[in-house]
Amino acid sequence: MSERFQLVTAVVILTVVGLGLTLYKHFSLGFPLLPGKVTQAWTAEARISFEATSEDVELSFAVPESSSTLQVLEQFSASSAYTLGYQDKGGSHPRAIWKGSGKTGRQVIYYQVVAFEGEGGDKRPDTKAPSGPTAPDLEPAYKVAAKDLIAQVKAKTTDPASFTAQLIQDLAAPKPSESARILLGISSDANSRARIAVDLVNLSGVPARIARGILLEDGRRREKLSDLVEVWTGDQWQDFQPDTGVLGLPDRFLLWQRGGESLLDLIGGHGSRVTFSTLSEIRGTRGLVVLKGEEEKAALVNFSIYTLPINQQNIFKLLLLVPIGTLVVVLMRSVVGIRTSGTFMPILIALAFKQTELISGLVMFIVVVAIGLMIRAYLSRLNLLLVPRISAVVIVVIILFAGVSIASFKLGIEAGLTVTFFPMIIMAWTIERMSVLWEEDGAREALIQGAGSLGVAVLVYLAMSIEIVEYLTFSFPELLLVVLAVTLMLGHYTGYRLTELRRFSPMAEK
Amino acid sequence: MIGRFVRPSKLRAAGILGMNARNVSLISVYNARKFYPRVDDKLKTKLLAEEAGIAVPELYGVVRSQGEVGGVYERVSKYPGFVIKPTHGSAGKGVLVITGQEDGEFRKPSGEVIGRKAMERHVSNTLSGLYSLGGKPDVAMIEALVQFSEDFRDYSFEGVPDIRVVVFRGVPIMAMMRLSTRASDGKANLHQGAVGVGLDLANGRALRAVQHGLPIESHPDSKNPFDELVVPRWTELLELSARCTDMTEMGYIGVDIVLDKTRGPLILEINARPGLAIQMASGAGLLPRVQWVQKSGCHAASVEERVATAMRVFSAEAGSLDNI
User: Fold this and answer.
1) Hey, what domains does chain B have and what are their CATH numbers?
2) Treating both helix axes as pointing N-terminal to C-terminal, what angle do B234-248 and B303-313 enclose, rounded to 10 degrees?
3) Would you say A324 and A473 are in contact if contact means Cβ atoms under 8 Å apart?
4) How crowded is residue A183: how many other Cβ atoms within 10 Å of its Cβ?
5) Contact: B18, A500; criterion CB under 8 Å
6) Which of the residue ranges A66-80, B186-200, B224-238 has the most confident prediction, judged by mean pLDDT?
């Protein structure tokens, strides 16, 4: 039978392609098959604001690099009228350059990076040798104290690294020495200590400078960069923490401005201000793999849903679950034999449940449909035409939405507010179909099909809510081909339905 | 309520045709999509039938637009009884039966009398799709009132007793009579509580009767025993049903037939998705009969031969098909 052959061929091809792509992504691109692994990700955002004064504006901004503990993977910029370019000359540190013209007044540019904790970051140690220490410009009174402190520390240490560490410790000590106190003056925060330490190290004859970055923490806004003491230890620049003198970067510290370069250079404007905010998010290992894949230009990743903006991705997350819903509906109808009113009604109701949570959604649905049915029963007595009748039901449904929302808010039941998540056309149509069924086939049939639809909707919702299902459909959309194959096979299922085993049971007695 | 479930193998042994098998192996194979309008549109069915010389209730007229509604009164005035129905209606919705006219007023079977206005509003509602599947604008047709044969008067409550014949590839393979009851509210749907009476294809004699899937001996309302029930003009009726296959070019149909006092069997409606309850009423499965027709190749024979074969092969006396 050629039709059967075609079907079998299609099913086999779909299954092989679907599973094949899935396995390829798993083994070659490293997509995890299970959602278990998560990686801490951080988003750091710089908000640059300035007053544009001339026609042509050029803005150069230091941007972060990957370090040994943090990997910078995504960079975004949001600015209304500026074109972004990157400058990454060999040896020097990368900078983002915005150019724009024709804009005056207050300007805001956002620059965002996403960094992951993890190995594999290619830390490029800065090995560009400095020309020599820069002599700090110190007032004579301070100079004496500075020299005194240097002599004290030098007596205890042997090399620039240990000298710097000891110096910072002395400056940060709870009871600093006399000369340290003079130097610190009234300001004793970490950033000013770092600056004093840099001056002193330079004074001692070792090149030193300030490096700046940001500590990644959740939900920080309007932050400033923190300073680190960067010292030339003979073959490379090394960072010291200004609080403890410890060598190396603090945990989750994203270096932003290095190499003694400016944070921001602005041509054609003034009054620039930069503030930073940070946010933590848990991202599955998948996210990391996708980003790597994009960078490596793996076609399967590069032309996929993941390249869409986050917002659209979230819509797709839901859309990709719909086939799972259809599969459940097909199973329930063809194999189990549950009667539902309409094929896709249960899926749409289930999608609404995804927004409202199950229990409150169910209660709301039943309440609104029950009241709607009563009103529809009255409307039917007026002998209205179909379209005005459904329109009337839609209006009534909206009034019900408003009523239920306000009433439940006043009663302090927050769940009531979720009623608005129900697509009201679906509600109106459900009410309409149910009442037509009621009239044509009686209350019993209407209740059977109504309950059937709702039951299937709950099953669809539960199937869609399984974490692994959610993860797999989004990570491996090619699995939908397998779902399609199964659906095609079910289309040719000619066996008895579960309900028929009961319906025809009297026939089996003979 | 839950009842008991049986193993699928037992149903298969009984030859029960399931919903999935009906849809996949019969309807989608033998009923071409493009011919569906021939059965879904009652007006088309009627015109086709008249053309093919198949007996149907006479068509008095068709109302296609709201502008014609005013003229309906004039058109029906010469008929004492008539029926107005939507061409795309389902389950008897929107069917207005008028059994008589007096002084410009119309009498319904229940005895209720309605005026010209009410009758016209009914036609107007029909045209705007109030009674149609999906609410699409429709056409109303006016046809002759069937003068029901007295034979079944004691077997029906209010509604119209009709005979459903399942015809596969032009061969009638199973038949039943549907009798409305008080419980079914005058409707002839088995799942609403109507009684299904399985008929012997050989002679139109009642085999057994079921209500709600359980065997009963007599009509629940009139208490008339079913063993005396025989459908007259049986061969003629079967030939009429068999001819519907040639007319619709559909291989698996359910033909609904009523018996008129004078004209005999008339086709009321043809269904391209006939239900499976007929198996319960007949106490037999459809599957072996379908397979027998597929194997015998008798669908190529003339109408008379096909019906003769069906009467011989599917008779209750012949018993199991294995013996033939």
Assistant:
1) 8-39+150-323 (3.30.470.20), 58-144 (3.30.1490)
2) 120
3) yes
4) 24
5) yes
6) B224-238
pLDDT score recorded for residue B37: 86
Supply the pLDDT for residue B1.
39
Beta-bridge partner residues of B62: B141
Hey, are the CB atoms on A506 and B19 less than 8 Å from each other?
no
Q: What is the mean pLDDT of chain A?
A: 79
Task: Please work out, in degrees rounded to the nearest 5, the angle formed at the alpha carbon of residue A283 by the alpha carbons of A279 and A289.
Answer: 130
Tokens of A49: 């604001």
- Report how far residue B276's alpha carbon sits from residue B274's, in angstroms, rounded to the nearest whole number: 7
Q: Which helix (H) or strand (E) holds A264?
A: strand A264-267
Report how far residue A405's alpha carbon sits from residue B156's, in angstroms, rounded to the nearest whole number: 52
Letter string b/e over residues B114-123, b meaning 16 or more CB atoms within 10 A of that residue's CB: eeeeebeebb
Give the whole-number percent of chain B exceeding pLDDT 90.
12
What confidence score (pLDDT) does residue A148 get? 85
- The overall average pLDDT reported for chain B is 84
Residue recorded with tokens 């086999």: A12
Domain boundaries, chain A: 36-132+209-297, 136-206, 316-476
Find residues 208-247 of chain A whose CB sits inside 8 Å of chain B: none
Q: Is A334 on the interface with B (CB under 8 A)?
A: yes
Dig out the tokens for A342 from the structure: 């309409």
Place of tokens 């809510």: A465
SS3 content of chain B, % helix, strand, coil (to 5): 40, 25, 40
Alpha-carbon span A328 to B227, nearest angstrom: 46
Query: Torsions phi, psi of B35, nearest 5?
Result: -90, -5
- The whole-number average pLDDT for the span B35-63 is 87
Which residues, in sequence order, are bridge partners of residue B254?
Answer: B166, B271
Largest pairwise CA distance in chain A? 116
Cα separation of B189 and A131, whole Å? 100
What is the residue type of A48? I
3-state per-residue secondary structure call for A152-173: HHHHHCCCHHHHHHHHHHHHHC
- The type of residue at A207 is P
Name the interface residues of B facing A (CB cutoff 8 Å). 2-8, 10-14, 16, 18-21, 24-25, 90-91, 93, 121, 125, 128-130, 135, 185, 189, 191-192, 213-215, 279-280, 283, 285
State which residues of chain A have pLDDT below 70: 1, 35-39, 80, 88-92, 118-127, 186-188, 219, 281-314, 383, 385-386, 412-423, 440-441, 509-510
Contact at 8 Å (CB) between A346 and A325?
Answer: yes
State the pLDDT at residue A93: 76
Question: CA nearest B128 in A: which residue?
Answer: A385
The residues facing A106 across adjacent strands are: A51
